[in-house]
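Feature request disguised as a bug: please show the residue count (168) next to Insertion element IS402-like domain-containing protein in the output. Example input:
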Amino acid sequence: MGRGERGDLSDAEWERLRPFLPVSNGRCGRWRDHRQVIDGILHRVRTGVHWRDLPERFGPWKTVYERHRLWSADGTWERLLQRIQAAADAAGEIDWDVSVDSTIVRAHQHAAGARIDPPPALGGSKGAEMVEHQDESPWQSLVGRLVEVVREARDWAVRAAASPARSI
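Example output, currently without the count:
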């Protein structure tokens, strides 16, 4: 991986992401290390853990939460994803020739039921999901990670728009 635990940004992913990150405007003081905070956000998106239950290695949970909330509200995650996708495309790492059309990919009428037999075991280790992504380039894995964060940010916006306004 790079410097830390499973799921943290690798050194190669970090080097590709770092040039696109916003810099502190100086009004709010010095920001905590972007890499540590982003690793905390990725951990939360991957595991679904509550913000308050983030491991201490990501720093104060409230710092991680506030950075994610701020970047979700001001569109930073969306911009990061667009810039990383553009850089990956320029490097020839994105294949845009994938097309699926529901008019030609049809499911059989009996395909809606649940499985009867359990799925076959995949190697049996907790790290099996990491093995299947080892052949991805740092660009591809970084794009995939940012897509997950952007999806969560969009879900937040939808939930916020649908919730009634609170009165004090």
